[in-house]
Amino acid sequence: MKLYQLSLKEEQELETFLKENLNKGYIKPSKSSMASPFFFVAKKDGKLCFC
Questions:
Q1: pLDDT tens across 3-49, in order?
Q2: Three-class SS of the chain
Q3: Does a structural domain hold residue 23?
Q4: Domain assignment of residue 33, yes or no
């Protein structure tokens, strides 16, 4: 699988998403060497949606 770098805006959105969802207990830290791909989709208002 080819890896792509995140833009500064995408990195900030990812950091915000992770912090919020870790605090809410929706996700938890993992020590696994495996990972799942993700991507951002631009909303009509210009914000990014994490998919």
A1: 678 889 888 988 999 999 999 999 998 888 877 777 888 889 988 88
A2: CCCCCCCHHHHHHHHHHHHHHHHHCCCCCCCCCCCCCCCEEECCCCCEEEC
A3: yes
A4: no
